[in-house]
Amino acid sequence: ALPISEDVPDTVSEAVHARIAGLNRPGRALLDAIAIVPQRAEVWLLEAMTDDEIGALDECLASGVVRAEADGVLFRHELARLAVQASLPPDKAVMLHRRALAALSDPTRGAPDYVRLAHHAEAAGDGPAMLRYGPAAGERAAERGAPREAQHHYWRALRFSDGLEPVARADLLERFCDHAYLSDM
Fold first, then answer.
1. Which one of 58, 59, 61, 83 is most buried, by most CB atoms within 10 A?
2. How far apart are CA 124 and CA 163, in angstroms?
């Protein structure tokens, strides 16, 4: 899915930060980890991303901005997630994305989710990982008949393609152009 606008109204941001103001340090650290994971963050993933802050999960749930599901946690509203994510210092956000990328790329976890891996690779600024997972996410989108989503993934990968061999970069550009054409770009 394509990302929504990251412009969070000030009133929403203020309301969210008022609700989470009482969280202690572990609670806020866990909430920050939840915020960088679009949709649902599995408990195992949060454990891999944090340093023993998973014990603060009840406190995060009590704040009312996140809710539990069968095997994970997610924000009640996407704008609330974006408000918390936007408040993260860049170094902390990159560190969390790197940890998520490492955990999600573990082959013992089963089949890779290329869309999630590409998201975290891009946010972590990990060019080699983005060049590995972005095109794979594009291929999966193309297989599902979603050319606009495929185009988006190829475009994201192209941002990291400066060091590629000319033939590999041309291939990536061609795949992007094919899907851009199919999506009437």
1. 83
2. 18
The pLDDT value recorded for residue 6 is: 60
Confidence of residue 63 (pLDDT cuts 50, 70, 90): very high
User: Given the DSSP bridges, would you call strands 66-69 and 41-42 parallel, antiparallel or unpaired?
Assistant: unpaired
pTM: 0.89
The answer to whether 115 and 140 have CB atoms below 8 angstroms apart is: yes
Residue pair 42/72 in contact (Cβ under 8 Å)? The answer is yes
Distances (CA, A) of 17 to 41, 79, 97: 20, 12, 22
Question: How many Cβ atoms from other residues are within 10 Å of residue 58's Cβ?
Answer: 9
How far is residue 169's CA from residue 175's CA, in Å, rounded to a whole number? 10
**Buried residues in 77-104 as b, exposed as e (16+ CB within 10 A):** eebbbbbbbebbeeeebbbbbbbbbebb
| Dihedral (CA of 6, 11, 14, 18) sign | negative
